[in-house]
Specification:
Layout (H helix, E strand, L loop, with lengths): L9 H4 L14 H9 L7 H14 L2 H10 L1 H9 L8 H18 L8 H20 L9 H9 L3 H9 L4 H5 L5 H9 L18 H4 L7 H23 L3 H11 L7 H8 L3 H19 L1
């Protein structure tokens, strides 16, 4: 047996999709923290007893109490990642899913507390959520990127990245140059910007984008050049025999070119002869055009 989201406490399942609260009312996050303060923490003896019940008897009630008794630690870890600008309630929810996975795998016989083990699962779940939510462009796909990202929770690492300093001391911790560290770290500090984002003057990003259309003068120039090429091609075609001109038009100047076999049947000659006439006509036209 295993826990699923149905066993989560109601506040955890809440998210930023809750109805807007009025001024003076508690926000959903404040309400959640108020409820969290009413949940008693577990001492070591209680935690060991509940863990054994879960491991040996698959007691869901014991697992639920382990979960509830450690939510305060999940919230503390989630707060470390608030500077990434994502909703704190969502970070807590993802961290709680990490805690659930840790409870399923926890072995109380090893002698350490649950959160000593679970903190790694909680951080991993939050990391994955941030990496997936941070940008529509996929980032953090290799081991070094994930390592740098995880390190940004340290104050000196985040400061070096945010201020744009090429901090060699920080970079050396990863075996990188300061410039390499800055390049990787900066990708996590630049959020996607909506094209509907408004400027102070009332305009928006979409209005500031260059038009995909070519400037009028360039359109006229391109049209003139295409007409010039067309005229040259027609002049060259007129210097071919009627048969050679038909072959070139049917083979190269139609949307659905005919095969050598079709032309051979129409002209009453062999396929090889059509190929020879085509090659000769193309050579003559190249000579005229160049």
């Amino acid at each position: 047996m295993s826990m699923n989201k149905e066993q989560l406490p109601a506040p955890i399942l809440q998210s930023t999709s809750l109805k807007p609260y009025q001024r003076g009312e508690l926000s959903p996050l404040d309400m959640w923290y108020r409820e969290l303060r009413q949940i008693p923490k577990l001492d070591r003896e209680e935690e060991i007893e509940l863990s054994k019940k879960w491991v040996e008897e698959q007691d869901l009630q014991a697992a639920h109490r382990l979960l509830m008794g450690n939510l305060h630690a999940v919230a503390a870890i989630a707060r470390e990642y608030r500077h990434f600008g994502l909703p704190e309630m969502d970070l807590i929810q993802e961290g709680t899913i990490g805690l659930m996975k840790a409870i399923q795998r926890f072995d109380p016989e090893r002698g350490f507390r649950l959160m000593t083990y679970a903190s790694w699962w909680v951080r991993a779940a939050i990391h994955d959520y941030i990496l997936k939510s941070w940008s529509i462009v996929k980032i953090g796909t290799n081991k070094m990127q994930r390592k740098v990202f995880a390190g940004l929770k340290k104050a000196k690492h985040a400061i070096a990245a945010i201020e744009g300093r090429l901090d060699e001391g920080v970079a050396n911790e990863y075996g990188l140059s300061g410039q390499e560290f800055q390049h990787i770290a900066s990708s996590f500090l630049q959020r996607d910007v909506s094209l509907d984002s408004e400027f102070d003057d009332g305009g928006n990003m979409l209005m500031a984008l260059p038009s995909p259309e070519l400037p009028p003068e360039e359109l006229v120039s391109n049209q003139d050049w295409k007409q010039h090429q067309h005229n040259l091609l027609e002049d060259a075609l007129q210097q071919l025999s009627n048969r050679d001109r038909l072959i070139i038009r049917r083979r190269h100047l139609t949307e659905d070119p005919e095969t050598l076999k079709d032309l051979a049947e129409e002209l009453g000659i062999s396929i090889e002869r059509v190929r020879q006439l085509e090659a000769r006509a193309m050579k003559k036209m190249r000579g005229i055009l160049t």
